[in-house]
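Sequence only, no structure available. Ideas?
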Amino acid sequence: MSTTTLSTKDNIRHTAEKLFRERGYAAIGMRELAREVGIEAPSIYNHYKSKDDLLREICFDIAEQFFKAFEIAERIHEKPGKKIKQLMKAHVSVIARNLEASEVFFNEWMFLQEPHLSDFKKQRYEYEMKFREAIEAGMKQGSFKKMNSKLVAFAIFSSLNATYDLLKNNEPMAEENIAEDIANLLLKGLKE
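Reply:
I predicted one. Tokens follow.
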């Protein structure tokens, strides 16, 4: 049986995700992080030059995963309802594969330093606009009733982004079932 061991850099990142999620980015120092990883404090700087570098890597990696999942899901269906459902499932899938990092992404991004904070906000806006464009396309085709696409996207993201609470609580709820049920619930509101 083979076991996978993390590189020191990966171990630092995973430990940071866990600590940032549990106690918040502001409460964790690099010395404490090094201690948790089991390395000397100066050694951590061989892998990350600052705590902000760690946060930036986590946030931008998750953002990239959301964009890639969106692009793949968008190609699967042409009908608006099926496309939106697939996009929602893809979003939940990224969260499910990255529970701790996703929670950091959702709750700690505001601690990013400039220019990374502005870049991150721009990416979030672009991602939201991709969802809004898919929703608006469904409205134009008559598949969805006319509504404010910003409000619809807000409701979708609020629901989808909260799924990490369901997934991390070890309740007997599968990722696929959560995504399917949320998509059905939200799409019903768009269609009636």
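The chain has ten helices and no strands.
Hope that gets you unstuck.
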